[in-house]
Amino acid sequence: MLSEDKAREIAQSLVEKARSAGADSADAIYVGSESQGVQVRLGELEHVDRSEGEEVGLRVFVGHQSASVASSDFSPDALAELVNRGVAMAREAPEDPYAGLAPPELLAHGPFPDIQSEDSRQEDPKALRERALAAENAALAVEGVTNSSGGSAGTSASTVALATSGGFSGAYRSTGHSCSVTVIAGEGPTMQRDSAWHGARHLEDLDAPEEVGKLAGERAVARLNPIKPKPGRYAVLFDPRIAGSLLGHFIGAITGSSVARKSSFLQDKLGQQIFATGVRLIDDPLRPRGLRSRPFDGEGLPVTTSALVDNGVLKTWLADSASARQLGIQPTGHAVRGAGGPPGAGPSNLYLAPGSRSRDELLAAFPEALLVTELIGQGVNGVTGDYSRGAAGFMVRNGAIAEPVQEITIASNLLDMFATLEPGTDLEFRRGVDSPTLLVPEMTVGAA
């Protein structure tokens, strides 16, 4: 994997070569990564892996015609062929009036914000093995846990560099450390499985493996002896571990390409109240050590913390340059991309701001409710907002978590859910998409 400076040089040289070969404009992105991981099961080492990879992508424009090409061969001959192939493909591509790089006057310029995404410390396989074993041992020590599907630990690093003919050049490096374990509780047909995982950019921010393991074991044991509740209308609480999925459906609906295709259930909702008063949904690409932090977007535009929803009102679409031109707006600094194709749009560190009531208060808000801790299937219609998912979790009675439930479905419409949902105060930044416990006052619950 190349250093940031070398990666940026590669990207810049490809852009220059593309212009020399006849492209009107071009951008290039380098993506390099390396990772190693260890898997254990029942105290024995099962698997050790290490992977390295790097790829460069080139996007060229000839008028309003464009093409994207990529290569993992960095030899001079291969890169020269990449450039020639890209320009030739662009000349044969259909015209797209919306195609083009980000406007030069909007590009970011260094020095870029310090997102503290790199940890200089390296971990060897021995340290990873010890972490995986510690997590698994802690899970197996939980009373009621009877077997293990394995514990794992990993470390990774990546470098991203971007250059454009509009004058942008930048690079950044990120690292990651992780720990996970999956265990089984109970015996025979009544067995239940659950897991826990944590990841962080810096090793010192990673949860202790004993905490990860204990949580996995307690989750598995808590699922023993589930019931199926009587079908009907229930208040439904979404546990933080799965509440972020609702934010994912929202993001899909405000992405510029979906709006431009008129395939979003939020199509005509910009500037309107779609969440309850007080609800705020924030995108924060500059959070220090955030799992999705970035100093610039996938087109070289500056990034900033922004409220996608403020006081319940939808404030913006997420648009790369192409979809922004279709919508008649400026690009929003949310372009995301890999080496193999043109940019799309997406969030960085996305979170729903905490509300005013605690998780315990939300649990006690109704005499009987359902706490969902797992979602199954993909039954969401992005055009209409109709929502139906398989689920598992726990009954809640008079504020106390009661017996586990499984093999159920929960259904509603996302517009109705957004309009009535209430966030708790228990927000923690642990993933790329974070949410506190969410209460939806009424959904249909049935048998799966």
Automatic annotation (TrEMBL):
Domain Metalloprotease TldD/E central: 120-224
Composition skew (Basic and acidic residues), residue ranges: 118-127
Residue ranges constituting the Metalloprotease TldD/E N-terminal domain according to the UniProt record: 26-90
Disordered: annotated segments: 96-127
Domain of life: Bacteria
UniProt-listed InterPro entries: Metalloprtase-TldD/E_C, Metalloprtase-TldD/E_cen_dom, Metalloprtase-TldD/E_N, PmbA, TldD/PmbA_N, TldD/PmbA_sf
Pfam families: PmbA_TldD_1st (PF01523), PmbA_TldD_2nd (PF19290), PmbA_TldD_3rd (PF19289)
Chain ranges of the Metalloprotease TldD/E C-terminal domain: 231-446
Similarity section: Belongs to the peptidase U62 family.
PANTHER family: METALLOPROTEASE PMBA
Name of this protein: TldD/PmbA family protein
Species in which this protein is naturally found: Sphingomonas sediminicola
